[in-house]
Amino acid sequence: MTIRPLGKIGRRALWSSPVVIVVVGFFAAIPWLKQQTDTFVLVLSAVAAIFVMGYALFISHRLQRHLDEVQIASQGFASSRGWVWGVMATNLLLMLPPVANWLIDVANNLSTGSADVSDRGAVHVALFFGVMLVVLTQLIAIMVASAIWQRRMGDMREPS
Question: What range does the domain containing 31 cover?
């Protein structure tokens, strides 16, 4: 019996499985976490978030080993521009009253089930939503900056 090596999809699924397991496990544990103390929940949330971010950094460094100079320059351009553009886009979004009001309402309803703004849970949820909004807009801005780089550089392959 011979062992077949994993295909490209199988390898990607295997490498991404720790993140999927942690995220799905965390969301599946929410009913149990509601019964625990606030300190325990915050510590467990921080551990899960740090693991996911650390593992993402590990994977990104692993994938960067095979890049050539042009791809590394493209990544640097996209990253340096995308972080700034993402923060600016988030600030512009938060200045729009419908977006800000929607985020506040969602945070209040998720934390307490009411519109009472004196709850600390609402503040925590709002802060986490703010951070997620920044990261998502930075991700989009990095993708746009990468597309701009690719378009400006054109096809860099040698003619055959």
Answer: 1-66
